[in-house]
Amino acid sequence: MLLKGLNKQVIVINDTGSELFESAIFFVSPRSSEKKDEDIVAEAQRLIASKLTSRDTARKIRMKTVIGAAATASALTFAATMLLQNFLK
To answer: What is the pLDDT of residues 38-62, one digit of tens each?
Structure first.
């Protein structure tokens, strides 16, 4: 990646909360010059948190789907077994 200009403001977040990434680097837009440093850092932290939350949420949804499918399959198998036992008597 090529950076134009001599001065670039960057924000480095060392505690990402991720098992895979120990730090994140954000290149600050020149348009943000009117923003406070605290606001810029808070936005960087918000971005990291939203990405981690969305990944965790997707994982939870997948697990609920798998558990629901397994429970449904188990219930259908039980019902079919009970019907067959009663039918074959």
So the answer is: 888 888 888 888 876 666 666 665 6
Measure the CA dihedral 51/19/3/26, to 10°: 50
Q: CA–CA separation, 6 vs 19, rounded Å?
A: 33
Mean pLDDT of 78-82: 78
Q: Identity (one letter) of the amino acid at 58?
A: A
Whole-angstrom CA distances from 83 to 61, 71, 72, 78, 87 are 33, 18, 16, 9, 6
Q: Which residues pair with 12 in a beta bridge?
A: 25
31: Cα within 13 Å, side-chain hemisphere: 0
Residue pair 13/45 in contact by the 8 Å Cβ criterion: yes
Q: What is the mean pLDDT of the chain?
A: 75
Number of H helices, E strands in the chain: 1, 2
